[in-house]
Amino acid sequence: MRALARGGNLFGQFPPRYEKEGFTKKERGGREEKEMKAKWICLLVLLLCFWGCAGSRTFWMDIRYMPGPSVEKAERGEVVAVNPFKDVSGDGTRLGDWTRPRGQVDTFMASKPVDQAVTEAISNYFRSRGYRVVPHVGWDLKPGSLSHIPADLVVGGEVIQLKSEAWTTVRTKVKVHVQLQIHLGRVAERKVLSQKMEISKEILGVTSRPERIEETLNKELSEAIDRVFQGIL
Fold first, then answer.
1. Which letter does DSSP use for residue 121 in this model?
2. pLDDT at 73
3. Lower CB density within 10 Å: C or N end of the chain?
4. All domains of the chain in start order, with CATH
């Protein structure tokens, strides 16, 4: 605090040589700014080296549906039965890797089975829009079995791909891939509508925190769900 009171900064007092050498105030400010930038760059490099030398880690992600700000919840009379989704990706709870400086690789894992997480995300899509959601088990995704389902609509499907990959140097690049196959049954009409949705997006400059990468994945999953039901509801 004493250094700051004398006109210094967090790194100490400004070097007095600029005053002795007769630099103008503008020239001194420019040189001091360059020295500050150089010190911050050195600090950033040291932090990246420290981070890169750390061992591999596992980050657990909470997969969920994130309704957009324009969604208005209105109570509806329709009941939606949600059949458990099936994960056919073959990746289990593994969502992808995060490659850090110096080649260390962290792992992204889902905090619960992917099929369960997507089933809950689909349920929350309908709840956010005022539908009454009930669980249902045993629908074979075919029209012939709709008559036994006590609901107006029934939803089921497969998770074909749900991945998040990240690479960090100075900035972080995130690549997200979501692929869903969704089947919507209209019980009264004995009719099944099916649609596949695939979203692949690459984003540069995401803040290098696991929470932001999790948020990026959830936004793309939510967009895929929104787009599917916009087309078949």
1. H
2. 72
3. N
4. 1-53 (no CATH), 58-232 (3.40.50.10610)
- Among residues 20, 44, 14, 19, which one has the least CA distance to residue 32? 14
Taking alpha carbons only, the member of 155, 153, 159 closest to residue 118 is 159
Q: What are the tokens at 154?
A: 């029934």
Q: What DSSP letter does each residue of 157-217 carry, written as one string? A: EEEEEEEEEEEESSSEEEEEEEEEEEEEEETTTTEEEEEEEEEEEEEEEE-SSHHHHHHHH
Q: Of 139, 149, 152, 155, whose CA–CA distance to 76 is shortest? A: 152
Which residue shows structure tokens 């889902």?
Answer: 110
As a whole number of angstroms, the distance between CA 192 and CA 181 comes to 13
* pLDDT recorded at residue 205: 79
Query: What pLDDT score does 7 carry?
Result: 44
- Geometric angle at alpha carbon 12, from 41 and 208, rounded to 5°: 30
Residue 169 pLDDT:
85
pLDDT of the residue at 9: 47
DSSP 3-state of 147: helix
Give pTM, 2 decimals: 0.74
| Residues of the chain below pLDDT 70 | 1-32, 34, 39-55
200, two tokens? 């692949």
